[in-house]
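Notebook, student rotation project (T.W.).
Task set for the rotation: take a protein with a known small-molecule partner, predict the structure of the complex, and write up what can be learned from the model alone. Partner molecule chosen: flavin mononucleotide. Sequence and SMILES entered below by T.W., checked by me.
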Amino acid sequence: MSNELIQLIKQRRSIRRFQDKPVERELIEEIIQAGRYAPSDRNRQPWRFIIITNKEYIHDLSEKVKEELKKLLRKKINVPKELKERENKILLAAAAYAKEDHIFFDAPVLILVLTDDKLFSTESTACCAQNMMLAAYSLGIGSCWIGLANVLNLNKKYLKDIGVPEGYHIAAAIVFGYPAEEKMKLPIRKIGDIIKWID
Ligand SMILES: Cc1cc2nc3c(=O)[nH]c(=O)nc-3n(C[C@H](O)[C@H](O)[C@H](O)COP(=O)(O)O)c2cc1C
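Predicted structure of the complex:
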């Protein structure tokens, strides 16, 4: 049993190499519409969108992310618990010190999905983000959620400069663009011990 939507869900992959070609505005708008139709707690729709299509601006933000990552890695006290895991530290350092843009991957479009601190806003916004990535895929546009970009939230000046309203923060930074890579192989998906039925 399958259908087009299920196929799309199964075939979507994170894309990290993009063609040097802008994405048409109508397509970006369509992707945002798909986000707006996501379910949300009490239908509060706690999201805002900042769409950046200026590649220099995206590159500049990438440098800011790197700076914040370096600051985090230098921390000796109040080290976030996630950074105590060696694997995470290596991942962050690789992105922070890379010469190339291993943050936003030179993407032509970056959408920041913002939310507030209210109950279930994070969950609602994640639904919105996934809708956007699936819609993009259905339109031939590749995407990748960039969790590392959340470090921008640590610097209030950056948020102000970007135009994040008071009381909001970046919940999902997602890059979009025409793919320059064709990913055939699906990363292994867990199956065995993640499902329990209670009949
Ligand atoms: C919340 C979240 C944060 C992520 N952060 C990053 C990131 O910072 N950099 C990156 O290259 N990929 C990031 N990804 C993409 C994942 O690495 C990717 O979804 C995962 O490896 C599975 O591959 P697939 O999306 O191709 O199925 C993130 C994905 C999610 C859902």
